[in-house]
Fold:
Amino acid sequence: MDRTDLRQAIEAFQEGRGRIAVLTGAGVSAESGIPTFRGPEGYWRVGSREYRPEQMATQFQFRQDPWELWAWYLYRRTVCLKASPNPGHQAIARMEQTLGDRFRLITQNVDGLHLRAGNSPERTFQIHGNLHFMRCGRDCSLSVWPIPTGVGPKGKGDSVTDAEKKLLSCPRCGAQARPHVLWFDERYDEALFRAESALRWAAQSDFLLVAGTSGATSLPMRIGELFLEKPQALFVDVNPHPNPFRDLALAHPRGIVLEGTAGSLLPEIAHLLEKAGAGRRSPTTES
Structure:
């Protein structure tokens, strides 16, 4: 299938009232000015040593130097708070408004921009967490809490103050809190990250729309590979660059590759879904 088939494919999807799984990655938020996780802004200098994201974002680093890790995350959080949802985020929020409970968003992004754009927490699987929240570092419960307002913005290289350290503690047991994100040395989890729910929804879906992800993590790739076993489903990959999902879409009988940014292409898909949905609801008239 090529792009000229997209309208007909979406009309057929709407006619069948199927389910959609929208899978997003860092490329969607990059258009809002948020650097990709593994880009130059992801690195962090401690003294004379520069740490890679794969070294910082670990349970091991939290145990070794928790406040340096918190400083890195609070700097990243500051960057995210300054950013605004872009047309790609807004288009995905419109898709949820159009499709209602036939829609689920599965996002790897921890910046919270999808929720700020209007997607609901109930229909959004944040499989890597959300860096605007924290939880107990000793796992006394599964509860998560917003990072307190007294924790201020951070520039690159800023430290966590003593007053902020007191705020970054578990409200239940008083232990040191940790960012509510999935680290490299941790596994996907249902209770905290709804990983199994995301897989179940994808297995029951008729349309996989992938946008802005490089396929570098395991759960998203499992979702993409799952759709290769669903030849009647629709598989669309939106990305300006070659990536494993593009390869999967090209191998799929009903795969469509759209080469470009999420901000430029997702509004078109949202419009097609709205138009096809409206046409399905409109009563037929006789002239």
Notes: The chain has 13 helices and eleven strands. The radius of gyration is 20 Å. Residues 262-281 form the longest helix (20 residues). Confidence is low (pLDDT under 50) at residues 282-287.
